[in-house]
Amino acid sequence: MSKFTSLIRRAPKRLSAVALIVAAAIIIPAATFAWGPNRETFTIDNPSDHVQFNSITDNPNVGDERNFVGVREKGSANTWYDNMNVQSGKTYIVRMYVHNNAATSLGLTAKNVTAKVNLPTTTGKSVDVMGFVNASNVGEDKKGNKGAFAEVYDDAKLTSTQNFNVAYVSGSLKYENNKGTFALPESIFTQTGAKLGYEKMDGNIPGCFQYSGYVSFEVKPQFETPSTYDFSKLVSKHGENKWVESYNAKPGETVDYLLQYKNTSKAAQQDEVTFRDTLPAGMTYVDKIDNKPATTWGNAVHPGGVAATNGANIANGTGINVGSYAAGANAWLIFSAKVAANDNLPTCGTNTLVNTGKVNTEGTSISDTANVVVTKECKPPVKITVCELSTKKIVTIDEKDFNTSKYSKDLNDCKEKPPVTITVCELATKKIVTINEKDFDASKHSKNLDDCKTPEKINVCELSTKTIVSIDEKDFDSAKYSKNLDDCKTTPPATIVVCDLTSKQTVTINESDFDASKYSKDLNACKETPTTPPELPHTGMSENIVAIVGLGALIASIAYYAASRRALNQ
User: Fold this and answer.
1) To the nearest whole percent, how much of the chain has pLDDT over 90?
2) Are residues 72 and 33 located together in one domain of the fold?
3) Do strands 151-168 and 83-85 pair parallel, antiparallel, or not at all (unpaired)?
4) In 349-371, which positions are buried (b, 16+ CB within 10 angstroms) versus exposed (e)?
5) What is the CA radius of gyration of the chain?
6) Tell me, what DSSP letter sits at residue 544?
7) How is the beta sheet containing 320-321 ordered, strand by strand?
8) Which of 172, 318, 425, 517 is deepest in the core (most CB within 10 A)?
9) DSSP 228-253
10) Residue 428 sits in which domain range?
């Protein structure tokens, strides 16, 4: 899709006489835009990075892709309109453009691509034909994301100054792309829709212009004119053929409807006589009964009736074409429908289910109604008393509203329950306290009450300081402490008496302080060496004095020696 401009040339070209694709830009009046939803848009140069339909605003073939439903008169060329003033006797083509905007390089394929068309059966001066395109993976990108816009829609408006309705031209529905033309089922006109595709209608459409395509079908406006034919609508209990305009039925009962047509003109043949019916809410079309088609139609050629193989078309807006009828000829159609079960009926009490039938021919139509009256019995809701969990209040509610995420049938759940208490250790105060269990905080409390015990103290010897200290028993470390307090007692150092070589005095020192360069254990080193005095004159007195002095010195030496020996013996 980075090469969008060149790929435009590869857009669908195999289109028949209706020439759905042309080189020139399509002109669509911009007075009103009924497209939706409001969504993200893209351009040729900046395509989508996810699966998304009809959101490029500068498509050279269709312009703004959001405006993807157009209409034009059959046989005209090139121009598609949002609004078309229709005329009696003419046929119109309705076209829907379908394009996955994901960039080619991403390889994103849209899955389960389905087209639906709302073709109203109402009569008025304006009829909106609405087209829808959806896929199951819209919004999906390479990361698997999915967005919200799973379905895009647009409409084309048919208008006239006279009342009219539109009729689908049987067999005109098709899908065209670069691979060819494909027939589509008429389920496209129902909620079921019709699958689209590229090589086959399998619901898969890759991203890029070359894979885009067009849904188209033809419609004819049916104008109200002075009636040249008759039409009536009646109802009966199933299988009884007792036809009335109003029937009282029971919930769940099956009824039959009769549609009758007659050409009352004097000479004109009326072609494409088509029966249609609109079922009201509360009635459902019945396709088969006893495994046989429930819808039959007949005429002078088939007085006993033939089974309608496409019976569901009677009620889905497509209608059943029963052919052409000469003046005075007639046709009829019978189909069955089932009344809803009691609980599925619209309202309590009497329900009048108005069923509208219609016949179309040659651009005109006539309608008629038949009623089914049914009574819905409504029982008062069963009330129950429950506990409202959010408010803890006892309330009374409808039993059908009971939800276990909001209510409890156990009224005790609304009673105030005393809080559960637990005993814990308060870590900050080391106190044992009682708290509400819901208030427990592991950062503030401990369920281990031993965490509040006061640590036991012991006296030990601190080995590093030889000091007796008191510590918590849990902190004891034999490498730091000793439980033997004697390990802290001080042993007096050993002392010795030595000679101080400096002072020549005997001193007492710690044995650990002994230094041979300062001290000597030989006390004789401190004795003074006697010197020989010079010879004195030998005088009487002098000799006596010397004798006395010599004797004193000897006595002193003996006394000193005795004292030093006592010191050594200590």
Assistant:
1) 61
2) yes
3) parallel
4) eebebebbbbbbbbbbbbbbbbb
5) 59
6) H
7) 246-248, 364-376, 349-361, 274-278, 320-321
8) 318
9) SEEEEEEEEETTT---BSEEE--TT-
10) 421-452
| pTM, full prediction | 0.43
Q: What is the mean pLDDT of residues 518-522?
A: 90
Which distant-in-sequence residues (6+ apart) come within 8 Å of 533 by Cβ? none
Regarding whether 364 and 293 lie in a shared domain, the answer is yes
Residues 203, 236: one domain? no
Residues 43 and 189 in one domain: yes
DSSP secondary structure letters along 317-330: SS-EE---B-TT-E
Q: How many other β-carbons are positioned within 10 Å of the β-carbon of residue 376?
A: 18
CA 223 from chain centre, in angstroms, equals: 51
Same domain? For 101 and 212 the reply is: yes
Same domain for 403 and 280, yes or no, is no
- Distance from chain centroid for Cα 42: 25
Let me know whether 208 and 279 are in one domain.
no
Which domain CATH number covers 323?
2.60.40.740
pLDDT single digits (tens) 303-322: 999 999 889 999 998 999 99
Could you give the residue ranges of the DSSP H alpha helices within 181-313? Answer: none
DSSP 403-417: -TTTEES-GGGGSPP
The tokens for 376 are 């819905």
Q: What is the pLDDT of residues 496-515, one digit of tens each?
A: 889 998 999 999 988 888 89
The number of distinct structural domains making up the chain is: 6
Q: Which tokens sit at 201? A: 């209608």
Q: What's the number of CA atoms in the CB half-sphere (13 Å) around residue 428?
A: 4
Domain stop point among 223, 254, 278: 223
